[in-house]
Amino acid sequence: MAKTLRVQLLEAEDVASIYEKAVHILGTHGVKVDYDEALDRLAAAGAQVERDTRMVRFSRENIEAALKTVPNSVTVKGGDEKHDFTVPDPSGKFYSTTCVQSMRYLDPDVGDYVENTKQRFAEWCQLVEKLPNIHVCAIQTPMDAPPETADVHALNVQLQNTSKPLMLLAYCNESVPYLFDLMLARAGGADGLRKRPLLLINPTSLSPLVFKDMDMAQLLGAAEYDIPVAANSLPVLGATAPGTIAGTVLLEAVELLAFLVMSQMFKPGLPFVATVFNTTMDLGTGNALLASSETILTRAATAQFCKEAFNVPVETFSLMSDSYLPDGQTAAEKTLQPTILSMAGADILYGAGRLGGSTLASPVELVIDDRLFAVIQRTVSGVQVDDETLAVDDIIDASAGGHYLRRKHTLRHCREMIRPDLFVPDVLDNWVAAGRKDLQTRATELYRELKKDLEPLQLPDDVKRDMDNVVKAADKALIA
Amino acid sequence: MAFDSLQKAVIEGDGDEAARLVQTHLDEGVAAQDILDNGLIVAMDQIGAMFSAGELFIPEMLVSAEAMQEGLALLKPLLVEGVGGGKGTVVIGAVKGDLHDIGKNLVALMLEGAGFTVVDLGTDVAPEDFVEAAKANDARIVGMSALLVTTMPNMKRTVDQMHDAGLTAKAIVGGAPLTQAYADEISADGYASDAPGAVVLCKRLLA
Fold first, then answer.
1. Distance CA B28, CA B22 (A)
2. What is the model's pTM?
3. Which residue of B has its CA nearest to A113?
4. How far apart are the C-alpha atoms of B89 and A472, rounded to whole Å?
5. Do A283 and B150 touch (CB under 8 A)?
6. Omega of the bond prior to A146 within 30 degrees of 0, cis?
7. How close is the nearest chain A Cα to the Cα of B136, in Å?
8. pLDDT tens digits for chain B (207 residues)?
9. Nearest-CB residue to A286 (from B58, B97, B100)
10. Is A283 on the interface with B (CB under 8 A)?
C-alpha cells in the first residue's frame, strides 16, 4: 500500500510539552468568553467561570473528558450526498475549501478587479459545483447586499447555487439566528438539518484568548443542530501572537483546545475540526503575510500538533498568496503551502481561488487551484510497492533494449497517471501554433468553457420562497 | 540647545534615560515646549522616517514611542496650551463591530509622539460616538481603523454622519484591508497604510 508522504516538524516530546503548557494556561489563566448564554452553559458543565471578568478556566479533567467525547473523524455533508466526505480520509487524501469573504473579484470579462456581487458569487458557487477537486464552498461578501445582512444574503446564494458542503462565518451576532433559519428552510426543518447539516460552521477566536459573542452563538447553534464545527484560530505571529513560531503554535493550541472543550461541553460528541489559520506580521511594514516561510511552518507544526495531541481532523490556510496578481509568485506559494501542509497532516486545505490579501478572489485562479490540487494530491500520495507494481516479469521479458508500450502491464496501468488538462505539455511547435498560450490564458479558456453550462440548483419553489423570506425578514429587522 | 542625547535615548528606546535627560534639561531651565519640539518630536520624526525607509521594525518603533512617552509625561504638566502647543486633537477608534486595535493603538502612540492630542475611543465605536467625541473635543481629525472587511462599511457610515452633523474635522481611515480607492469611495479625507504615514497625513491635512 502506498504510504502518504508525511513531514514531522515536532518530536513527540515537543507535542507533549505544548500540550502540557496549553493545559496549564487553560487551567490557570483561562480564556475570555464574551457571551452570557455560553458562560451559563460552561458553568453548568463544570468550567470555572468568573462572571465579572468573563474569564473561563478549564481543569485537566474538563479537558480530558472533552478529548474522550470529541469524534476522531468527521463526515462533512452537503446538499447532495454525492459530495459528502469524511476526514481524516483512510487513504490519506485531503479535501479543499474555497477562499472566504472576498469583497473583490478579478473578473476575466472585465480584466480588472470589480466588486463581488450576489450574481458573481452565484456564478462562483455554480463553478465550484463543476470543479472535481473543490469540495467545500465558503461564504463570500456580496457588496451589493446590505452590509448588515451581507452574510445572510451570501448564505442564501450558497444554498441556492451549490450542493457541495458549505463553509459559513457569521459577520455579526445579530445575523446568526437568520443564518440558522436559512439552513432550516433549506433542510426542511430541524430534523432535516441534523440529518444533513449542509455545512461546516466556523466560529473564530479573537486572538489572543478571546471568544466573541457571535462566535459563541454559532458554536451553540452548531451544538443544537449537530452541525460539524471547524473552529478557527487565526493569530498573527508577532502581533496577536508571540514573535516566535513555537509561541504561536502554543497560542493556537490553547485557543483550539478551548474551542474543542467548549464544543464538547455544549454537546458531547459534536464533530470538531481544528482549523489553523495563522498569519505572520511583517514587522517592517505591519502587513499580514499569508504565505511566508514562518507562516507555513507555524501552520504545519500546529496541524501536526492537533492531529497528535487532540486526534481530530485539521483544516489549514493553504492556497494563500501574498501576490495580488495571478503570477509566478502566486503559483509558487500556492504549490509550496498545500504540499507542506498536506504532508503535515492537514485534512482540509483552505483558500482555493484566493489572490493576495484578504479580499481578492479570482474564478480563473479557482480553476487553476482545482487542477493544482490534483497534482499535489498525487504527488504526496507516495509510491505503492508490491509484486504487481514492481513488474519483475515485464522487466525480464522486455529484455535489454526493449520497450514497455505494448506490454499488458503497461496497458493495465496506463490510465493511472494524472493528466491535469491545464498542465499537460505539448511539443513546442504545437504550442506555438496554438497561440503560445500561458497558464492564465489556458485557465481562462477553461473557465469560459465551464461557464457555458453553469446553472443554479433546481430547488422546490416553496423552499426557495421560504429562504427568500428569511432574507427579507433579516433585512427588515437588521437594516438600520 | 542640543538635544542629541535625548533624541538618541528615544531612538534607542531607553525610556529611563529619556526621562532622566528631560528632567536634566528642565533643571537647567530649558522650556518644556523647547524640549518637546526640538527634542522629543524631532526624535519621533526621525523614527518615522527610519521606519518608512525600512530601517526600523514595528517593535523597535513602539519601544521608541514608549520612551518618548516617558519623557513627555514629565513635560505635560508644564505645557501651557496642552501637549504639542495646539497641534490639534485627533479622535481615533476602531469602527463599530471591529475589536482589533493593534494598528489603531500604534497610530495613536505615533500621533501623540508627533505632538497631537489624541482621544482614543477604543474599539467597536459607533458612528454617533465618533461624531459626539469629535464635537466634545473640538477634534480637527477623526481617525477610523478597521481590520475586518465586514466592518469597513461602518467607516462610510461614520463619514456620512460626520458630514450630516456638519463637522469640519477631517476623516481619515486605515487598516489592513483598506485602500486609497476605498477612502476616496467613501469620501474620506485621507488614507495611510502605516502609522508613520498616518502622522504625515495628519500634518498635511492640518498644514
1. 10
2. 0.90
3. B181
4. 43
5. no
6. no
7. 25
8. 589 999 999 999 999 999 999 999 999 999 998 999 899 999 998 998 998 898 999 899 889 989 999 999 999 888 765 445 467 999 999 999 888 888 898 899 888 888 888 999 999 999 999 999 999 999 999 999 998 777 888 999 999 999 999 999 999 999 877 889 889 999 999 999 888 889 999 999 998
9. B58
10. yes
